[in-house]
Write the structure tokens for this entry.
Amino acid sequence: MKKVIVLSVLLLCATIAKAQDTEKNEIRVGYSDATFIRLGNGFADAFSTAIVSGLSGVKYKDAKNKTMGMFEAGYRYTINERLKVGADISYLKSEDTFQAKTANAKSVTRNTNYIMGLVTGEFSYIRTPLLNFYGSGGLGILSGATKETGSSYSSNEVGFAYQINPAGLRVGKKFGAFVEVGYGYKGIATAGLNYKF
């Protein structure tokens, strides 16, 4: 009987240890405000409109911008109890509409699709089975493809991108929800869901 109990306890411990080892992977989906990109677009549009107005003499009405925000998907691999590494891919669509202040002027719509890829690291400050308070940072590239309807203008640009989130909170065990606050191309606030396996 003692052998059965000892064997059962060992089997239970091995199962728990294996279950903990198998949860080194995490996938996540999220949404962020993309403040950095939206503000940058606003300044660039105002600057380019001012130059075009100055050169051509055509005055433009204020641009109307439609941007939903940035959607992301990511992966994390747990190296140890406090450190994770992974990657994020994000997408943002921005639409700006301009119209000249002259009679019968056609509006011009500029559509820009952004795709961003970041290699990310995450460090846990405080970790319990249900809560994880952490910070993260990522470096990568941002690609923007712009086309205008009503004109022949188009451009493709690739540049450096980053995100620093000194404060992040995840709540949950296998399934969880997270919120992050920081600065960079994703914006000031990011929220989403994740799953450990």
Observations:
- The domain at 24-196 is CATH 2.40.160.20 (Porin).
- Strands lie at 25-32, 64-67, 70-78, 83-99, 107-127, 131-149, 154-172, 175-184, 189-196.
- The chain has two helices and nine strands.
- The chain has one domain: 24-196.
